[in-house]
Amino acid sequence: MKLSRARLAKAPFATVLFALMGSAAACMNGEGGPAAHLGPQIGHQFHESEMRRIVSMSPVPPPPPDETNRVADDPRAAAFGRTLFFDPLLSPSGRFACSTCHDPERGWGDGLALSQAAGITDRHAPTLWNVAWNRWYFWDGRADSLWSQAVQPIESPAEMASDRLFVAHAVARRAELRNAYVDLFGPLPPLEDGARFPPRGRPVATDSSDPLHQAWTGMNEADRDAVNRVLTNVTKAIAAFERTIVSTRSRFDIFVEGVRNQDPKGMAALSAAERHGLRIFVGRGNCFLCHSGPNLTDREFHNLGLASAVSDTARHAGVSRLRGDEFNARGRYSDDTTGPVARRLLYLAQNEEQLGQMKTPTLRNVARTAPYMHDGRFASLEDVVRFYSDLPGTAPAGHREELLVSLGLTDKEQADLVAFLRALTDESANRSLVP
Amino acid sequence: MFSMRFLPALLATVLLSACARPADTRSETPANVGETLGGRWSVRYETEPAPIPLNEPFRMRIEVKPADGSPFPADGTVAVDAVMPTHSHGMNVVPRTFAEGDGRFRVEGMQLHMAGDWELLLDVRAGETVQRATFPLRLEP
Q1: Which of A403, A404, A405 to mutate to test the interface with B (most CBs of B within 10 A)?
Q2: How far apart are CA A210 and CA A208, in angstroms?
Q3: CA A195, CA A211: separation in Å to the nearest integer?
Q4: pLDDT beyond 90 at B108
Q5: What is the mean pLDDT of residues B51-79?
Q6: What distances in angstroms separate CA A47 from CA A33, A132, A251, one per listed residue?
């Protein structure tokens, strides 16, 4: 409630006293008064402060630009990237594609606790819903753009087990891919010259005797740079496709639209149980503090005490890797080394607080992205909510976020919170993305 | 002579004053003027954009004046930090401060990533002494 003193001086005494009593009461509970203007069904269920939080979570705005990727919003790049995303042509075994672990039928994840492709990874595959809005990529944020992220699974021995020379040759080999590439990025280097461009090769930081590393370091610097250009152009096209994986229209969004327009039909999009769950979410559950904004994530990192081991330094290690990544936003392969994305690196902190911290995931379509947490330890949303309610155990790495205290939710409250999370599913989400 | 005409405004003043809280960043007049503990410096800051956006970068402009009216010393510096006391953590960024002369500073790279109660900490250093000005603020969407 906002009351200017000038207006108060002119107001009738009883009106002012009544208004101030309301104001003082609101002050005591710290939440503002009921949002009565929304009518008896909704308005008396939420305080004004809760409503402010709720409307800040919808609608989803257009995706932020990525100036580090000059083809980020080029439809031709997205079409090329879509082919590369679903086709296993970039993996030497011919078995694995991005979609192996990011399957649209499994919420753009893989349904597994720990992802499996050429091997088993040590993390759960995050969903790609609304991935364009992320600030950092991977659970530990070791990449700062969607295109630089995509380099790593391509070359990871546990994932696609590929390498940048193989990728360049794979694109050059197939006419339709080569044409799409040249159309977007210009001519490929003379990859047919086998003496200059071996069939396989990449840097292997952990083993300089690895044949892939030997082949890579045997090339001259200009040719290595040319191959890095092909690799990053390919991942920029993949990123352009991934930016189209967008969800904006859940029942929660329809509810918020109803609230904004004071339209009872829209407000009826959530059931009483779901609205109760929403109130817990933005109120005493404190879910909102980390799951904030239109994608229900602060895009930052927190320690829930779930690190698998003391040695899992999570975000702390992620910062080191990001700074050392030749493909970060300030590197030579970025299309904008001074803009907003690149400037994040200038102010990037690294401190002990980051030990054990993992990135807050989006909750959009969360009912379709099981299992949960960075290691997929929880099979269901019920398990996740029970965890926050009881908060068992201690943090193996770093220390748990101070604000996290067991919520002690009743069974009914837990069920209603889960009901709200299910209302974040977007039944209309774009299915035309799937081949 | 007390006039009943002003009673509503007086009551409003008393009740609203009793309701003092950390500066709400959405309010029209943020409490952005104060002095350092110890009283040596008067400190004023502005943010861009204003009010401070939740979980987005913002810039600060700070003006520090010696309380005794003397010129700001040539070796004077300001360091800026922000913490959430009830969460026991600070920002995920390390902002950079640039001196612009006469006790004026520009701070780039600030970002408060969570809703809730923050404390903005401005440390003014001159010679061997440091004095801190603390500005509580409440960040909401």
Answers
A1: A403
A2: 5
A3: 15
A4: yes
A5: 96
A6: 5, 32, 21
Residue ranges in chain A modelled with pLDDT below 70: 1-32, 36, 39-41, 43-44, 307-311, 394-397, 399, 402-403
Any idea which residue has 């947490």 for tokens? Answer: A373
- DSSP states along A112-162: SSS-BSSSB-SSPPPP-TTGGG-SSBSTT--BSSHHHHHHHHHH-TTTT--
Given strand B41-48, what is the order of strands in its sheet?
B33-35, B41-48, B58-66, B104-110, B96-101
Length of chain A counted residue by residue: 435
Q: At what angle do helices A272-282 and A411-422 cross, to 10 degrees?
A: 100
Please give the ipTM for the structure prediction.
Answer: 0.81
Q: Does B56 lie at the interface with A, CB-CB under 8 angstroms? A: no
DSSP character at residue A378? B
Is residue A288 within 8 angstroms of chain B, CB to CB? yes
For A301, which residue in chain B has the nearest alpha carbon? Answer: B92
Give dist(CA A277, CA B36) in Å, integer.
44
Q: Does B20 touch chain A (CB under 8 A)?
A: no
Q: With the CA atoms of A319, A320, A324 and A326 taken in that order, what torsion angle do they form, in degrees rounded to the nearest 10?
A: -30
Which of B14, B24, B56, B92 to probe by mutation at the A interface, max A CB count within 10 Å?
Answer: B92
